[in-house]
TrEMBL record, chains A, B:
Enzyme class of the recorded protein, top EC level: hydrolase
UniProt-listed NCBIfam families: lao, PRK09435.1
Family: Belongs to the SIMIBI class G3E GTPase family. ArgK/MeaB subfamily.
CDD domains: MMAA-like (cd03114)
Transmembrane portions of the chain: none
EC number annotated for this UniProt entry: 3.6.5.-
Pfam families: MeaB (PF03308)
The keyword Cell membrane is assigned to this record: no
Entry's Gene Ontology molecular function annotations: hydrolase activity
Keywords per UniProt: Hydrolase
Record PANTHER family: METHYLMALONIC ACIDURIA TYPE A PROTEIN, MITOCHONDRIAL, METHYLMALONYL-COA MUTASE
Protein name in the entry: Methylmalonyl Co-A mutase-associated GTPase MeaB
Length: 345, 345
């Protein structure tokens, strides 16, 4: 980080800290439970804080919010850069708020950082939603690790639900592990695609298509309509090749023009169908419990591994073992066992 | 387990134990390094033993074998039951031994157990290979967990390589997690399919096609040839839809008749091409080091989690936490952190 960026980062942290210190957890919770935006924003800032002294307050606020958490529809939205995610969220979000729905937009963006300016960047890309009294837009939190960023997003969902938001849209960029993380915190996973020439599935990370509950061909307008229809057919065929999902849901391909605001009815109908079905057969709550359980187990693993790898007495052993493993001198199984034994002694 | 099966299992364990006790690690290692089959078989039995008193000997033998481990081609073979894996291995294995290659066949079969008789079952299905002086066939080890079974198989590879086997075929049934485990211990992953009517990719677990380095349409003989050709085209198209693999390898579809022994030349040519390419560009050794590292990390995780979950002082807390997580009363993150803190105190 350059000095000027560091300076800016520390300024931002200072402003955030001051904002938090002014209010108590009770005040924050009171505001959030009444659906007040400033308190919700401050609460999320508290959750996102990396200062150890904020952790306890954050956990207290979280536990309070969990107690009044409303049910919402959590929808993940992914797609490669340039596919028009922000424009889609802007127009679909506005479509929902016009129906009287309260919509929160969160983001898990591993490429985001203060120096790149996306803290404000995201917001300005969704001008209408930002001004919409029924919408709450929160850019991606800054974080050292993707796991950290997604964890903060996962906890922000709880705060948004406590504030009465009925639909949570979680945006992610289609790179690396972020989709898997977003997929593990949502009920429904949308993949946005453009109608292109030729190999429609190229450029998408392995496994993403399999996670999608629906594929949306975006920018299906003007000269693109014909190409979009072809893409729709090709994707429908590709989806057909996969075995059915555990919950019985059959992924669907839709066409949307975010600019012409067409196709949004279809998206909403599909979502309603999904939520009616999966609430009816119990898969929604089953899925959420399993997600929570997985987050718990994963965090358990991470925490155990973190403590193990940062243990000062093990540094030399770990480095030596890895070298021996690389040279094929020791079994990866036995050496792991030995090191854990030493760790827990 | 029925009493009679239990009895049989304990008899088998007794016979195995006696067999092991008769020889020392040095004797075993000496025999293995000379490529002697009885010592190799006994060594693997030692590796597979679940008696804690055998662990140290097993590790000693393993470390010795690692020191003289030859390079081999490790090939994973998967496909749903009935696709003809054993017949394919029998005919491809014989094809290889006729070329003078030494071939070992191992299995990771989560459905295998003593009561189902597959310890002998596998062997009798490969009559020619079992009698072949250049082949060594080892059925799936019995085990409580798939992870345990695959770990034993992973270590058996080391022993087979120390005994001079040049090609290791690892068979797995296309159900559950076993392919992922086999994929993580081989250089090349083969998916066997039958030419069927209609949806060729149906019935295969999500993700398996993405792991395949080649798909083989088996039983491409007699009336099946036409259907096999159609299947080949459909699979080739499906593979084309995936982004390229990290090592640059482009998965291929081949047709084989294990009964008519046709297509085996093509399979061997493809494998040679793969190994020449990936040895040339360094991906083979890179992949193996990464696999070892992953096995190490995974075993580290497993061991840490195992110790955590069986800790007698945590049983009550874990049960209570899971209940609270299910009811959405606590954050999965904070509760994991708290429990780990208690564990390491």
């Amino acid at each position: 980080m350059l000095a000027i960026e560091k300076n800016r980062a520390s300024q931002i942290q200072n402003i955030k800290s001051k904002r938090i210190e002014k209010v108590s957890v009770d005040e924050l919770f009171d505001g959030i439970s009444k659906g007040q935006y400033p308190e919700l924003a401050k609460g999320i800032t508290l959750i996102e804080s990396t200062r150890p002294e904020d952790f306890e307050m954050a956990n207290l606020l979280l536990t309070k919010c969990l107690s009044i958490q409303n049910s919402s529809l959590r929808i993940g939205i992914t797609g490669v850069p340039g596919v028009g995610k922000s424009t889609f969220i802007e127009s679909f979000g506005s479509y929902l708020t016009k129906m009287g729905k309260k919509v929160a937009v969160l983001a898990v963006d591993p490429t985001s950082s203060i120096s790149k300016g996306s803290i404000l960047g995201d917001k300005t890309r969704m001008e209408a939603l930002v001004k919409d009294p029924n919408a709450f837009v929160r850019p991606s939190p800054a974080g050292d690790s993707l796991g950290g960023v997604s964890r903060k997003t996962r906890e922000s969902i709880v705060l948004c639900e406590a504030a009465g938001f009925e639909i949570i849209l979680i945006e992610t960029v289609g790179v690396g592990q972020s989709e898997t993380l977003v997929h593990s915190m949502v009920d429904f996973f949308l993949l946005l695609k453009l109608a292109g020439a030729g190999d429609e599935l190229q450029g998408i990370k392995r496994g993403i298509i399999e996670m999608a509950d629906a594929i949306i061909i975006n920018k299906a307008d003007g000269d693109n309509v014909k190409k979009a229809k072809l893409a729709k057919t090709e994707f429908a065929r590709a989806l057909h090749l996969y075995p059915p999902k555990e919950n019985g849901w059959i992924p669907t391909v839709l066409m949307v023009s975010s600019i012409e605001s067409s196709g949004l009815n279809d998206v909403w109908s599909l979502l309603k169908k999904f939520f009616e079905e999966s609430e009816g057969n119990g898969h929604l709550s089953k899925n959420r419990f399993e997600q929570n359980r997985k987050w718990f187990e994963q965090n358990l693993e991470n925490e155990l591994k973190f403590r193990f790898f940062k243990n000062p007495h093990l540094q030399k052993d770990i480095a030596e073992t890895l070298l021996k493993i690389e040279k094929n001198e020791v079994s990866p199984f036995h050496s792991a066992k030995l090191l854990v034994k030493k760790f827990l002694k």
